[in-house]
């Protein structure tokens, strides 16, 4: 067992309890959190202005694109999408073992204990199956051509089987339906049925751009031009509300939702869905900003993630939530900061179906420690000061073991 003491222990329990001069005892699970705990254990004091809190969780990444730096075109969603299609194979081939190790190292240094990985090909599995970080590996399905449905589905099943073979305490699987505009409804239903039968989390991109809405509602706009390059008489196969309805009775996280309207947010809330907010990605693609006030009004738990390096310069979650703090100028920084810390800990854990994200008895001992530059007199401002002044951590524990 290990006993740590810090000037500030941020528990992320239901009361959002912050313990001054607090302690935590853990082995692979958290045993106790509080003050003046078991004196028979040797205490490790972490030093002046030290913080203990749950390790961070990056719910949505595309590590297959981690070799991207300047290949892709930012500033417009459709231009970016076309550049992704143009450079996709080169970027995938450019990310081998060292590329994945570098991406994981970047996340590890910034206190991330777990991440959700969208895998579109399965070629990343050999690089990620022995990751020191926890992974929820989302096999993604994409394809709207009716003639190819059977072939796409058989390939998808093969990828699921392959990833199931490497499952362990750190490697879990999930399923991803790329988006309402890119997956045939027949495939959607098949994938959702698998998720229900196997109790797997789902992720799906939803309402990332104005172009998506124009296409799904009217069959018009930039997506019409895009699809007609490949298919004659292309038309949308599902509308937004019908799409959301597919995910009833599942653990589904809707990615982006920048252009989701109130009816769609209401339905996401009613089916118990989650939302992932990727503020830097949304800014670089110039699609707008998620309305967090509406998301909160509908009591939808949201998490913040980096997305992939296809639309970000970093996989550091502290940088991501700092960007969110500065972008959402309509929200009070003190209260937004509290929500943002929740978004990368307990909310993220629930989205991925993990037993971590808070410092509570029985939770996995996934913990980070670091130091702030000065004392924080007003504990209500601790989340804000953490976001402003933290980029990397001193220690990362996963299942109670320190990960170097």
Automatic annotation (TrEMBL):
Q: Does the keyword tRNA processing apply?
A: no
Quote one Gene Ontology molecular function term.
Answer: hydrolase activity, acting on carbon-nitrogen (but not peptide) bonds
* Domain Amidohydrolase-related per the UniProt entry, residue ranges: 51-403
InterPro entries the record matches? Amidohydro-rel (IPR006680), Metal-dep_hydrolase_composite (IPR011059), Metal_Hydrolase (IPR032466), MTA/SAH_deaminase (IPR050287)
Per the UniProt record, one Pfam family is Amidohydro_1
Domain of life, source organism: Bacteria
Identify the keywords attached in UniProt to this record, alphabetized: Hydrolase
According to the UniProt entry, the coiled-coil residues are none
> Known NCBIfam families for this protein?
PRK08418.1 (NF006269)
User: Which PANTHER family does the entry link to?
Assistant: AMIDOHYDROLASE-RELATED DOMAIN-CONTAINING PROTEIN (PTHR43794:SF11), AMINOHYDROLASE SSNA-RELATED (PTHR43794)
The name this protein goes by in its record: Amidohydrolase
User: Which species does the entry assign this protein to?
Assistant: Nautilia profundicola (strain ATCC BAA-1463 / DSM 18972 / AmH)
